[in-house]
UniProtKB/TrEMBL annotation:
Protein name stated in the entry: DUF1722 domain-containing protein
Residue ranges of domain INTS8 TPR repeats in the record: 1-67
Top-rank taxon, per record: Eukaryota
A Pfam family it matches: TPR_INTS8
Alphabetized InterPro entries for the sequence: TPR_INTS8
């Protein structure tokens, strides 16, 4: 279910929300690389309040992928 929600958010331009949804998946580790890379490719052109959501990222691995 979360994968479908994540895809819909990406299609609507909400890449940061898509990244937050990745944390709710049962096995999020396999989705970290595609999720972080899609967020990094946006170059700040997301339609959501991307910097406001960064404190909600609780997973260290996902934060490392997003910063690199």
């Amino acid at each position: 279910m979360w994968l479908k929600v994540q895809r819909c958010l990406r299609m609507n331009g909400a890449e940061t929300l898509s990244t937050l949804i990745c944390q709710l998946m049962r096995n999020p580790v396999e989705r970290y690389v595609p999720t972080a890379s899609s967020l990094l490719e946006t170059q700040g052109d997301t339609l959501d309040a991307c910097t406001a959501y960064f404190p909600l990222i609780s997973d260290i691995n996902l934060a490392e992928f997003m910063s690199g």
